[in-house]
Amino acid sequence: MKRKVLFIDDENSWRTMVSMFLRLAGYECLTAKDAIGSMLYSGEDDLAAIILDVNLGSENTNDLLKSLKEANPGVPVVLYTGLENTDPSIKRLLEEGANEYLRKGNLQDLVQCVRVVAGHSANRLQKPPMLQTSAWQVV
Predict the structure, then answer these.
(1) Which range among 45-49, 85-89, 92-96, 105-109 shows the weakest confidence by mean pLDDT?
(2) Is the pLDDT of residue 5 over 90?
(3) Which of 8, 92, 98, 102 has the least C-beta neighbours within 10 A?
(4) Mean pLDDT of the region 35-63
(5) Domain segments of the chain: what residues?
(6) How far is the C-alpha of 101 from the C-alpha of 81, rounded, in Å?
(7) CATH assignment of 4-138?
(8) Burial class (CB in 10 A: 0-12, 13-18, 19+), 29
């Protein structure tokens, strides 16, 4: 069963937090901050899913999505962003081949979304891990 996820986000703190949470949920997490970094993992034969931030600075997310879909046919792409689902760029990316949209926030929702799109939903009865460090808590 494929358990590798590629997470693309230009914010270092999000890359760190999400990759740590996905690892705790049993996934190997590859990370990239931009299109060039994400292409290093392009064509990985054992990717279960790609998680893509919609706002990558000056990068053209539409072009990146097309490149990712060409290099990784059949691998689901989850848009993970702070943008509302009514934003025109979300609709455009979903029309261009992204499989799901998820608003940044609850990391348990992200793990569940990855499980569903990657076909690991049989694991949905397992409670996602709780990560707690000093004064903050991610559940």
Answers:
(1) 85-89
(2) yes
(3) 92
(4) 86
(5) 4-138
(6) 8
(7) 3.40.50.2300
(8) buried
